[in-house]
């Protein structure tokens, strides 16, 4: 008898829980709840720390909510190409946004350069040395770069190595991170002795663990012009449009330049 | 340079090496687990089963920290070999062995447990020393367990992904395995390559498991026929 009463109580609790779960799923997948005042922003890894700050500023001034997603520009591009429900794409190059526009995955004319990225070499060598000296030091065993096929910062890193004539010499030391965030982690955990990261990551890191920072001269690689696009379907999303426009404002631009990005020279 | 499909070579090398390493570690461990009455047995059992339930990211994160030259294991490795454990073949081998351990220990332990005390005691009364009894009685009786363990260990090593993504560094011909190669191919929209590698892995895994079941059935038939 007691057992069956206990059993009834348990089964009632379980069925209530199931009902609540179903209700939650039904509510959260309802289109109105998701699109009314929130937007998904896909952010290239180098920019994520800046995007978090921009998001905080944007949300405090607007009745909208942003969800940030991050990855290499190449991966996010592939996800958008396959219909990922993102509203704004902050890429680390101009190539992927323009491809998306050609493919009809972005709103025509809604594209501009929101930042010009700067790259830094983060290593455990002394600050006095030059980049060529650091990278040709035999004690440097591993050099982390983001995958050049997927990440514009990785592409710029390889271009810079080629420009100083070291690419062939250090090829065997290169380790390829999924994105510039993982490249940062490889150096930060001490597994790589040096790594090409974004200057913004350095600016946002209070404890550099005694490692030295060298800003890579921007003439060593193609300029890292980072374009933002409003993705197809998002022109109806007030939160997405507002955030897209917010990026051009002096308030947003001053946050961006504070993280080491260069000022935008022209609109794309 | 191994060319376009260097990842196949790295994966096979990794799977063979890891199966060997797994058997060397798992056979004594499973034998001990099957026979011990020690109070810490549940602790060891839980530890060896952990990789089955832990997300690979937990493994990857801790290995990245352990492998770092700022920690004893990592700095020891750099001193001995001159290269870091992370991003090296030895590093992904270590990660794969750790992560595949339960797939090898469990079938072996089950097989050893089902051999039973009786057969071993009979061997002992006939004058067999423990190691002798293990070799001539336990091993033949547990051979299905050995085969299952080796095939699962090999197949799981071929399928290793998450941990290698975190500690491998995606280096062509050294740490770029098939699963990582597929992932990168999909991200770069190189579907031709992704298709070839995925279909190959699928067919290979199916054939490995099918052979396992067919051979195990054959052995069972013969034992029943006795």
- The overall pLDDT average of chain B reads 91
Category by helix and strand content of chain B: mainly alpha
H-E order of chain A: HHEHEHEHEEHEHHEHEHEEHH
The CATH topology annotation of the largest domain in chain A reads as D-Maltodextrin-Binding Protein, domain 2
Quickly name the level 1 CATH class of the largest domain in chain A: Alpha Beta
Tell me the name of the CATH homologous superfamily of chain B. Answer: MetI-like
Rg from alpha-carbon coordinates of chain B = 20 Å
Number of helices of chain A: 12
Helix content of chain A: 40-55%
Q: Largest sheet of chain A, if any?
A: 5 strands, mixed
What share of the residues of chain B does DSSP label as strand, in percent? under 5%
User: What is the N-to-C order of secondary-structure elements of chain B (H for helix, E for strand)?
Assistant: HHHHHHHHHH
Characterize the structure shown.
With 268 residues, chain A is of the alpha/beta class. Chain A is built from twelve helices and ten strands. In chain A, strands 2-1-3-10-4 form a five-stranded mixed β-sheet, sandwiched between helices. Chain A starts with a helix and ends in a 10-residue tail after the last helix. About 2% of the residues of chain A have low confidence. Chain B is built from ten helices and no strands. Chain B has one domain: MetI-like (MetI-like fold, Orthogonal Bundle), CATH 1.10.3720.10. In chain B, 80% of the residues lie in helices and 0% in strands. In chain B, helix 1 runs antiparallel to helix 7 and helix 9 packs antiparallel against helix 10. Chains A and B meet through helix 4 and strand 7 of A and helix 3 and helix 9 of B.
Short description:
The complex is a heterodimer of chains A (268) and B (226). With 268 residues, chain A is an alpha/beta fold.
């Amino acid at each position: 008898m007691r057992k069956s009463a206990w059993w009834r109580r348990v089964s009632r609790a379980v069925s209530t829980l199931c009902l609540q779960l179903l209700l939650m799923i039904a509510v959260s997948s309802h289109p109105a709840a998701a699109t009314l005042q929130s937007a998904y922003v896909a952010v290239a890894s180098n920019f994520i720390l800046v995007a978090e700050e921009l998001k905080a500023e944007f949300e405090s001034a607007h009745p909208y909510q942003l969800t940030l997603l991050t990855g290499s520009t190449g991966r996010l591009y592939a996800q958008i190409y396959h219909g990922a429900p993102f509203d704004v794409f902050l890429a680390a190059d101009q190539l992927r946004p323009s491809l998306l526009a050609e493919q009809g995955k972005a709103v025509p004319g809604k594209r501009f350069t929101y930042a010009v990225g700067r790259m830094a070499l983060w290593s455990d060598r002394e600050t006095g040395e030059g980049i060529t000296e650091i990278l040709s030091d035999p004690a440097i065993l591993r050099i982390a770069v983001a995958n050049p096929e997927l990440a514009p910062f990785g592409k710029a890193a390889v271009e810079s190595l080629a420009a100083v004539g070291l690419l062939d010499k250090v090829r065997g030391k290169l380790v390829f991170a999924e994105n510039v965030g993982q490249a940062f982690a490889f150096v930060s955990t001490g597994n790589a002795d040096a790594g090409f990261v974004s200057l913004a990551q350095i600016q946002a890191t209070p404890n550099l663990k005694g490692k030295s920072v060298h800003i890579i001269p921007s003439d060593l690689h193609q300029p890292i012009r980072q374009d933002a696009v409003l993705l197809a379907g998002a022109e109806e999303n007030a939160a997405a449009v507002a955030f897209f426009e917010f990026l051009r404002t002096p308030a947003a631009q001053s946050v961006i330049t504070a993280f080491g990005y260069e000022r935008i020279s022209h609109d794309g | 340079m191994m060319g376009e499909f260097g990842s196949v070579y790295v994966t096979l090398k990794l799977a063979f090496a890891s199966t060997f390493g797994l058997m060397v570690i798992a056979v004594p461990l499973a034998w001990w687990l099957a026979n011990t009455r020690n109070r810490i047995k549940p602790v060891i059992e839980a530890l060896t089963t952990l990789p089955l339930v832990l997300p690979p990211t937990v493994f990857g994160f801790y290995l990245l920290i352990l492998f770092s030259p700022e920690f004893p294991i990592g700095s020891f490795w750099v001193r001995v070999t001159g290269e870091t454990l992370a991003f090296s073949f030895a590093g992904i081998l270590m990660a794969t062995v750790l992560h595949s351990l339960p797939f090898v220990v469990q079938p072996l332990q089950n097989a050893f447990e089902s051999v039973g005390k009786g057969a071993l005691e009979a061997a002992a009364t006939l004058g067999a020393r423990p190691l002798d009894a293990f070799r001539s009685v336990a091993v033949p009786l547990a051979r299905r367990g050995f085969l299952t363990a080796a095939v699962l260990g090999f197949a799981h090593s071929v399928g290793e992904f998450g941990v290698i993504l975190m500690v491998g560094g995606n280096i062509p011909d050294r740490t770029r395995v098939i699963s990582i190669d597929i992932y990168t191919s999909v991200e770069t929209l190189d579907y031709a390559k992704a298709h070839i590698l995925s279909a190959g892995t699928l067919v290979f895994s199916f054939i490995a498991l099918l052979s396992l079941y067919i051979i195990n059935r054959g052995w069972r038939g013969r034992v029943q026929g006795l």
